[in-house]
Amino acid sequence: MTIDLNEAAVDTGDLIPDRTIAKVRLKIRPGGYDAPQFGAPGGIATHSAATGSVYLDCEATIIGGPYDRRKVWFMIGLFSSKGDNKWGAMGKTLARSILESARSIRPDDMSPDAVQRRRITSFHDLQDAEFVALISVEKGRDGGEDRNRINRAITPDHKAYAAAMNSTMDGGANVANGAATPSATATTTLSAQWT
């Protein structure tokens, strides 16, 4: 039997444009490290022997639009062996914004209901969460290639949130001049004035 790969699509390796907003589904890839003290029991965390850091190894799959089914990999920091553990604090901030995006909670909502909905039993609760992500391009280090990353989730207080969160293959958000309007895609690229 001969398999003809001439018919296969060419992998261009193109990056998703910097500052693209897209609805994604989160998958935490278990690293086999049990870290209940950081809210990551049952081997869901990953431990770096080189740095001593503990993190969640995350994969986000884009839902709909021109980048449908493309994947973006990122980490949620839980612990750094450096004394201040800023990485762990940044990881909690990212996890909170993912949860707020997935559960449609405004960051400034401190009602008893919102406070309760921000509580999780462990980071396992984020598995398969659908949220709106801001996808960036991270410059390659030490001669490596540039790559896409997620460093921020878009929450309901953002103008593009509703359109992106409610997007399907046929709908989405287009951000132009600071206003969200319906368009034919589930993703959008932010203009330079947005952060």
Describe the structure.
The protein has 195 residues and is α+β, with helices and mostly antiparallel strands. It contains 3 helices and 10 strands; from the N terminus they run βββββααββαβββ. β2 and β3 form a beta hairpin. The strands form 2 sheets. Strands 1, 2, 3, 4, 5, 6, 7 and 10 form an 8-stranded antiparallel β-sheet that branches. The protein has a two-stranded antiparallel ribbon with strand order 8-9. The protein is globular and about 60 Å long.
The general outline is: globular
Largest sheet: 8 strands, antiparallel
Q: Give the mean pLDDT.
A: 86
List the total number of helices.
3
Instruction: Give the CA-CA distance, first to last residue.
Output: 53 Å
Which stretches are poorly predicted, pLDDT < 50 over at least 5 residues?
169-186, 191-195
Number of strands: 10
Determine Rg (CA atoms, Å): 18 Å
Indicate the topology:
Layout (H helix, E strand, L loop, with lengths): L19 E10 L3 E3 L4 E8 L6 E9 L8 E9 L6 H17 L9 H6 L12 E9 L8 E8 L6 H5 L7 E4 L2 E4 L4 E3 L6
Antiparallel strand pairs: 1-4, 1-6, 1-10, 2-3, 3-4, 4-5, 6-7, 8-9
Key terms:
195 residues
Describe the structure in brief:
The chain is an alpha+beta fold and 195 residues long. The protein has helices at residues 86-102, 112-117, 161-165, and strands spanning 20-29, 33-35, 40-47, 54-62, 71-79, 130-138, 147-154, 173-176, 179-182, 187-189.
